[in-house]
Every structure is written in C-alpha cells, then in structure tokens.
C-alpha cells in the first residue's frame, strides 16, 4: 500500500493518507490558499490518518478515536479539512487565534462576516460575492486575531447539492466556470479571488442572514449589537474556553461593529445590495430584538427579596445585558428593562413589589402591567440560577 504524508506551513507533517491517491489529489485541490507538500510516508504516523476501506475510506483523528467511515473522496477531503482547520485553531498551537464558524468576504479592504445559521445559505451567498467581483476569505471558518482582525485559512468553499432554485443565471455560470472536485452531495469551488492562508483584514460588519423566497428585493436591517454577540458566542471553536473568557475578545468587536440582518431571496442581488450599503455607509432601518429570560416556573411571593447569585458574570452591551452563569456556562440575554432590574438587584436585595415600585415611574408604565412582566422576568432569573433568595425563604414568610 502506498502511504503519503501531507505537510502544511505552520503545521508541518500533519496528515497521513494510505492507499488513497484520489483523496490526496482532491485535498490538495481544496487547499488553494496554502502551499501543501506531499511526500512518501516516514516515521510515526501523524494524529490525523486516512485509509482506504473497501470502496470508501476510514479516517482517524484525535476527535475520531473510533474512526469515521467516508464514502467518497470529496467526503473524505471535507472531513480531513475540518480536522486540519481544528489543528490550525488549536489552543496548544496558537493561544491567541479564535476560530469562528462564519463566511467572510472583503469589501473595500474590510470583512463582512456571516455567522453560521442552519441552511441560511452563507456558502452560496459568499460565492455570490465572489461572482460579483469581491474577494472571498472563506465560506465556513475564519480566524480572529487578538487585535480583532479576521484571518483566512485558505480553504476552498463548498456548495451543498442540489443547488437551490431561483439562482441568477450569472451566478450559475460562475459556479460552473469555477467548479472543483465534488460528488452527489457537495461540490468544491475554486473562486478566482480567494485569500491565502494567513492573510488578515479588519472587520466591517457582522451580518445575520434570513432567506425568504417571497421577497421581491434584498433588504438590510440594523439589529442590536446583542444579536451579533449572541451569534458569535454560539459559533466559535473555543470549546475549551468558557464564555466568560471569550467576552473580553468579543465585546469590543460588538461595541464598534454594526450588526446587520440581510433578508434576501436571490444571493447575487443580495450580495450587491449589502456591498452597496457597506461601501456607501447607507443608513438602514433598525429592528429591535431585545430578549428577556423566559420562565416556566410557578408564582413568586411578592415580598421575598432576591439578589444576584455568586459566580454570575454580567456584561453590558448597549442597552442590553448578557449574563453568564459560571457553574453551568449558560448564557442569558436581558433587554433594557431586564438590564435595569439586574442593576437594581446588584445594588441591594429587593422584592418583586419593591422592583415594581422602582421601575413603574422610570419606564412610565402602569404598575399592574409592569409587575406582571417583572414576575415573568424574575421567575426566569430564579429558574436559571441567576438570582437567589436574600434570606432563607422560610424566614421571609
């Protein structure tokens, strides 16, 4: 059996492929932003290994100690790329590089990033930017440097097949011209303008996606910064770091970057509209999206006093507040009124009645309505372990 070792700059000899020349060719083709080298295997095998297994392949890696069966060369290359990206972002290799699940495109020297959202079309949209003449930094993974710049990994983008209906003929023609290796499920593309591994650019905006086939034209809406922060906290590779440790990296980004929502039906038109907005600094309408903690709990005694639980970390962002429950790692997001409640409880232990009295005048709302909303919020905070009784409840009755 022929065994080959693949080496990448910065990683060295990182992958062994045994009796799988077609996977080797596919893999090299999907790393156009790198300069990989392939040579006959020597010495002990690297941690990532792939072997031919019947008509398919079997992969082993630190995250796959039991092995993973892969049916095609494209599927094998896709799986190997995921592990190689993990190696690049691994904390023991580069403590300061944070990996984000997002697509990214360069517009006037800065990056618009599109965090992962299930079937929202970020890969198709990022390639639509490439078809419109913009530079692609990646369709799935972006490194975030300590200074808040995005770093390309040099990996070819990949489309899910079959392609969605209703794509512009110009975009379909671009896909066909730049098609790379593929199978019945996925097709890699080699766009004409793909950033090389290690290239960096400052960020311009965080853009969430909403695909709606019924829209006549693409539209861009401004969201609260909390929307972007919530998405980035969910879409990172830093499994070994808790969210409290990530906040110093992500909060400064959200304090200076706009968070936008791109609603669209056809990707190429959407790419051109977003580029127009970002390049011209066009003012876009706002959509409020603050959230309060939901509760499934029972009624609270109005006279019981509550205070913040220990090991709860609070991070303000604009009018909103993010709370991270230290023991569980749970993330909770409060809107402006929830933020006000937390600020009051942080000053002194208060009851539901006292909170209602404090906030009724401040928010200029009927006390009855406010008390009902406060009950739902406070019950949610109690249920999440974010607040605790100021004294034993049995003594407070």
UniProtKB/TrEMBL annotation:
This is HPr kinase. It comes from Bisbaumannia pacifica. The lineage of its organism: Bacteria, Pseudomonadati, Pseudomonadota, Gammaproteobacteria, Oceanospirillales.
